[in-house]
Amino acid sequence: TNGLNHFFTRPFNLAFNVYQGYDLIESHDLYLKYPNYKISEQLAKKVHYDREKVEKLGIEPKEAFSLLKKYTDNKEYVYCGSNYLGYDCMIIKNSAEEVGIDIGYNYLQSVYDTNAIFKAFKLNIKPDNENLLAWQISMNEKKVKGLKSRLGIVCEYFEIPYLDEEAHSGNYDVIKSHDC
After folding, report:
1. pTM of the predicted model, to two decimals?
2. How does pLDDT run across 53-104, given as a tens digit for each residue?
3. Angle, to 10 degrees, between the axis of helix 132-141 and the axis of helix 114-123?
4. How are beta strands 13-20 and 111-113 bridged, if at all?
5. Could you tell me which residues come within 8 angstroms of residue 18 by beta carbon, excluding any fewer than 6 positions away?
């Protein structure tokens, strides 16, 4: 909504899975219903927005973010996502705050961002394990001509099947980030 930006975009889909190693324990693929949700036709197509599906399956954003908060408040979990630190964490924080849920930033210390890690891997840059969050954020910001690190590229490199037509479909991206 309102273009793709860190401050005003609101997700219509919040997907996250809980794994123990490679075993899927829980899957959450939630659709969020906002009053007067606006999305351009072009963006709706890119992110698989289906108004009827959201109307039928959607829940209140506060309910979705309350569920997510149960996990972000638990220090036993680690988080994995593609460009999570470069984009998603801000969308989640701002959207949750808008409905009165404080997700906070503490859980970000336990995030592994496949975008940042893959860039470092391709550039042969060792991680700063003492300052992993700051290191990953700096890697996410690193721009190198010809270096691509979107999720589909990472999957292709590691020979993990990936369907471009499913890109940006919440639960699909979550599963593929875990596979990487």
Report:
1. 0.87
2. 999 999 999 999 999 999 999 999 999 999 899 889 999 999 999 999 999 9
3. 80
4. unpaired
5. 24, 25, 26, 27, 28, 71, 77
